[in-house]
Design goal:
It is a single chain. The protein has about 180 residues and is an alpha/beta fold. The chain is built from five helices and seven strands, in the order E-H-E-H-E-H-E-H-E-E-E-H. The strands form two sheets. Strands 1-2-3-4-5 form a five-stranded parallel sheet. The protein has a two-stranded antiparallel ribbon with strand order 6-7. The longest helix has 21 residues.
Amino acid sequence: MLLSCSTKDLRKATWLWDATLLQDAEDIVSFLTTHRFNTVFVQIDEHVPQAIYAEFIQHANEQHIAVYALDGSPAWVTDDKLFHDYFQWLRDYTKHYAHAPFQGIHLDVEPYLRPNWHDDTALVVEQFQAMIVQAQQQAAALNLPIEADLPFWFDEVAYSNAFGEGNVAQWVIEQL
């Protein structure tokens, strides 16, 4: 079977890790448009006012650029506070800026950077899986799609725990 799609169906995305740059919304959107990006993953920084995010999203939406709420840290695997603070920020933002919504959630957690990854991979994997389940539930409550960065080699990481058994990449793909 041959599959085809047009270039308008493809997503060209980039990350914006320094949310303080959002103050230059017009310049950033101009850059994204010039380079034909249609999606940008913008890091959530609690020190950047939510109104700046809303203004940026409005400019991006005018150019048909989807904005996803980006965040994550290896610490999220075991630090519930960081994880819950992120989703609380999203709930607050959604409540106050419904006119400029995020189009989705993009996680970059990197559990393999945990200090105990090599010594106790099975434990870290199970903690990561529990965090992914919670993230999916939080995203569903916000009515937002959710996705996550995965290293190419995650299909070589096996698990056998309360979540079943298989490879981590496939499991995350099925969850998100």
